[in-house]
Design a protein that fits this description.
By secondary structure, the protein is of the alpha/beta class. Helix content is about 20%, strand content about 30%. The chain is built from three helices and eight strands. The protein is globular, with a radius of gyration of 17 Å.
Length: about 150
């Protein structure tokens, strides 16, 4: 059975502010922004080229049977790009406060930059140059076959 990770709920304190941040500063596409049932508004945004979205909501945590995580409590969320210098230029051009890229080693996948959303949720952006020519699912399948 195949399973795909497609939506990650993200705890934020202000839906409109978070929507505007992810849309305008980070460049995510707004897929949904509506009341999906009485009293439950969902804002779902997807990074360009991604099969996984984030969901912002004022009541979504109640559906899982637990309380909401504190806004800003998520750390280590990760985006991947093929060219980190181009991504840095685009993100800073949008007005995002993102760190300079840090190369931890010359290996592909070892260069990162970091930013936080208005609530303090922490993101990293990782460069995978190989993604420019080979999609993630093909690359992971090839790596798995080598093991």
């Amino acid at each position: 059975m195949d399973m795909t990770l497609e939506v990650i709920p993200l705890p934020v304190s202000d839906l409109d502010r978070a929507r505007d941040f992810y849309r305008d500063k980070v460049g995510f596409h707004v897929d949904i922004d509506q009341e999906v049932m009485p009293g439950m508004r969902i804002v779902q945004l997807t990074p360009p080229g991604s099969g996984c979205s984030i969901a912002l909501g004022d009541s979504i945590w109640e559906l899982t049977g637990g309380g909401p995580p504190a806004p800003g409590s998520y750390q280590g969320l990760q985006l991947c790009v093929a060219d980190i210098k181009a991504a840095h230029a685009e993100l800073t051009g949008r007005g995002l406060d993102v760190s300079e890229p840090v190369q931890y080693s010359p290996d592909d996948g070892a260069t990162f930059m970091y930013f936080k959303d208005p609530d303090g949720n922490g993101w990293s952006v990782q460069e995978y140059r190989q993604r420019a020519t080979e999609p993630l699912h093909a690359l992971l399948g090839k790596l798995a076959a080598q093991r």
